[in-house]
Amino acid sequence: MPQLVHNTFISRKPQDLVLTDGFQFTHGQTIAPFTIRYETFGELNADRSNAILVCHALSASAHVAGKYTDNDDERPGWWDGLVGYGKGIDLDKYFVVCANLPGSCFGTTAPSSIDPETGRPYGSRYPWPTIEDMVHSQKRVLDHLGISHLKSIAGGSLGGMQVLMWTALYPAFSDSIMAMACGAAVPVQGIAWHVIGRKMVESDAHFNSGDYYGHEPLRGLQIARMVGHMTYLSAQALQSKFGRRRRGNTRQFEIDSYFEYQGQKFAKQYDANSYIRVQAAMDEMDMLEQFGSIEAAFAKWRGQTLIVSFDTDWLFPMPEVERVEQAMLVNGTPVHHERISSPNGHDTFLIDYDLITPPVRAFLKQL
Q1: Is 308 helix (H, G, I), strand (E, B) or coil?
Q2: Of 136, 313, 337, 347, catalytic
Q3: How confident is the prediction for the chain on average, in pLDDT?
Q4: 3-state DSSP call for residue 120?
Q5: Does residue 286 carry a catalytic annotation?
Q6: b vs e for 242-275, b when ≥16 Cβ sit within 10 Å of the residue's Cβ?
Q7: What's the half-sphere exposure (Cβ side, CA atoms, 13 Å) at 117?
Q8: Which of 17, 81, 119, 297 has its CB surrounded by the most CB atoms within 10 Å?
Q9: For residues 213 and 228, what is the distance between their CA atoms, to the nearest angstrom?
Q10: 3-state SS assignment for residue 165
Q11: Predicted confidence band at 6 (pLDDT cuts at 50, 70, 90)?
C-alpha cells in the first residue's frame, strides 16, 4: 500500500540503468558506459498492460510525482497535480515510468558527468542529443523493465514533442498518446527566443566553449532562463502578476525582480551545457523536414490520441497544434483536441490541474 502524505505520496527512489556498451547518439557519437536515470510509480499488473510512459520537459527530471520523504519542505514531483492516487493519471490503476533524457543533468549521463577516461566532465565533448535519442533511451528503459506495450504515452512541451516522435518511431508500441502544449516543430518565433538565450549562455565570459566547470553558476544561463521564461507566460499573466508595479519605493520593476529570482534559482539547479543542448534538440525536431510531411510522420500511427492546447500559449499557439490534429485526421487516426482557455500561457499544463485533469481522466476511461 502506498504511504500517503497530505495530497501526495512517498515515491520510490530513482533507479539507474547502466548501459555498459554505451549509448549511440543520432549524430554518431557513443558514450560508454552510459547511465539512464529513471523512476517508476504505482504497480505494474500481472500482464504488464497498465504502463504509461511520461516524458518530461526541458528543466524537469524523472521525478514526476510524490515525495521521497514526508518532510514538509520537500516539493513533490513536477506533475504531482496530475499523477497520483486518485488523480487524473491514477496510480491505483496505472504504472507510470519516466526516464531522465540524454543531455539532462538530473542523473542520466550528461555534460557535467565525469568521463572515466579523463577524470574530467565531458563538457564541450558531450554530443548534441536529438528528440529521437530521447525516445530511444526511453525504449531502452522499457525493454529493461520487460514492458513491450504501453497503455499510453504522455507529456507536455518538449515532453509532448517526444510523445509525437514516439508515434513516428514506434507506432505500434502504445494504445494511445496524450500530448499537451506541443507541435511537430517549434515555430520560428520560439526558435528566435531560444537562439537568443543560447547565445547569451555561449557569450558568457566564463563559458569557455562549454568547459567552464568550477565557474558556475553562469550569469549567461541566468539571463537565458529569463528569456526562456517569457515564452512560458502570457500577456495576461504578465499584466495580472506584475503590471508596471515597482519594488517598494525603488525604480526596479516587479517583473525584473521576478526574473532575477527565477534566473538565479534555475542556474543553481541546472547545467548550462545541458540547457543549450536539450533546448537545441527541441528546435532541431521538425517532423515535416524529417519525414517529408507531417502526414507521413504519423502514417503508421492509429492509436487513440488526446491533444491539448492552450489559447494563450506563445510557444505553441493553437494553429501549430491544429497542424498535428489535421495530419492525424487525414490518416484516419482518432483524435480528440481539447482546447483550453487559461491566462497562464504555455505553463498551463503545469499549473491548471483543474482544467487538464478532466480531459485526461475521460480519455483514459474510454480506452
Answers
A1: strand
A2: 313
A3: 96
A4: coil
A5: no
A6: beeeeeeeeeeeebebbbeebbeebbeebbbbbb
A7: 5
A8: 297
A9: 23
A10: helix
A11: confident
All three cell numbers of 266: 534555475
Q: Is 144 a catalytic residue?
A: no
Please say if 157 is a catalytic residue: yes
The active-site residue out of 133, 194, 346, 347 is 346
- Write the pLDDT tens digit of every residue in 68-122: 999 989 999 999 999 999 999 999 999 999 999 999 999 999 999 999 999 999 9
pLDDT (mean) for 329-344: 97
Cell of 137: 533511451
- Transcribe 266-298 into DSSP letters: HHHHS-HHHHHHHHHHHHH-BHHHHHSSHHHHT
Name 47's Cβ contacts closer than 8 Å, sequence gap at least 6: none
What is the rounded CA–CA span in Å between residue 119 and residue 133?
Answer: 25
Say if CB 152 and CB 118 are below 8 A apart.
no
- Domains (ranges, CATH) in the chain? 4-186+286-365 (3.40.50.1820), 190-281 (1.10.1740.110)
The predicted-structure confidence for 197-256, as pLDDT tens digits, reads as follows: 999 999 999 999 999 999 888 999 999 999 998 888 888 988 998 999 999 889 999 999
> Other CB atoms closer than 10 Å to residue 44's CB: what's the count?
17
Which pTM was predicted?
Answer: 0.97
Strands 95-99 and 34-41: antiparallel
Cross-strand pairs, 307 = 179, 337
Residue with cell 504555455: 346
Among the listed residues 157, 176, 274, 342, the single catalytic one is: 157
Closest CA to 152 of 295, 303, 41: 303
